[in-house]
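Minutes, project check-in
Item: structure for the 349-residue chain
Input as provided by the requester:
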Amino acid sequence: MMNKISVSIVGGSGYAGGDLIRLLLFHPNVELKQVTSERFLGKALYKVHPNLRKQTDLKFCAIDELESCDVIFLCLPHGKAMGSIEKFNLLADKIIDLSADFRLNNPAEFKKWYGEDHKFPEKLNEFVYGIPELHREEMKTAKYISSAGCNATTTILGLYPLYKEGLVEPDRTVVEVKVGSSEGGNRSTESSHHPVKDGSVRSYQPTQHRHTAEIIQELSFGKEIKIHFSATALDIVRGILATSHVFLNQELEEKDIWKLYRKYYANEYFIRIVKEKEGNYRYPEPKIVAGTNFCDIGFKKDEESNRLVVISSIDNLMKGAAGQALQAFNIMNGLEEKTGLEFPGLHPY
């Protein structure tokens, strides 16, 4: 039997941190050593994450109390991870950061989208961008992984085969994302713990959403592209539904689109192509993937034009945060990729 991998979580009181704790507690190859929270220092984890009652005796500790371990997950607010990355490097050989601090490769793009200079720009190219379906091989030898944004993950996975094959007009893609309130309140920080249920303001971003930078970075393939992106909150807690309108640069039938998506995703366990001719679940929808690490993708060709509508859906706290981070962790440590992530979801939900 292999020795368990010792893991700690920095900033474990937010939503993403809570899901990550839940996943790691039941991972057969992991020993969860410590979870930090400055706000809830000394309190039992279940005081913040009540679903963890009788699952662990761990209490939140301070960052200054962290001990050495094999892997650290960073679930800190934006800007906090990059300021302390050298400190965390001394405690663990491998780091997976769930914040946005190391997602962009270009320091100038980071400043453009986040409004400040990066504190350690030389570190940006050391982090592997955290969508396993795109960067699996780099993850196998990585020391640092930056988990992708939830909106970006949904959009990128939905559009990747089309952009990879150069089938899309580069400046006309329009993406409208509907998100659950847990994204806005707060997906990977310690600042909020109660989801908004009114579908209102927290996640409404009509233009200039920061995840746009990740989408452009991962879909450009050396070409100049434009992504017209908007995000709106829904009256749900978990889930993202991305509706992407792309304009094809050649004539393709739906059977050709099928073949393309099968080419890229047929062997991807966590990608499901959902396009049925009958029944209630003919296209992806958030409630079907709630609590899972799956990304469901469907599409519909506009017979009157060269427009293709691509629909993709994930759980923003799983494939958009904790689940995808654990998937990357498994790859990074030579484990079966779906270990700890086999839950198929609930129906009805």
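Outcome recorded: The first strand starts at residue 5 and ends at 10.
No further action items on this chain.
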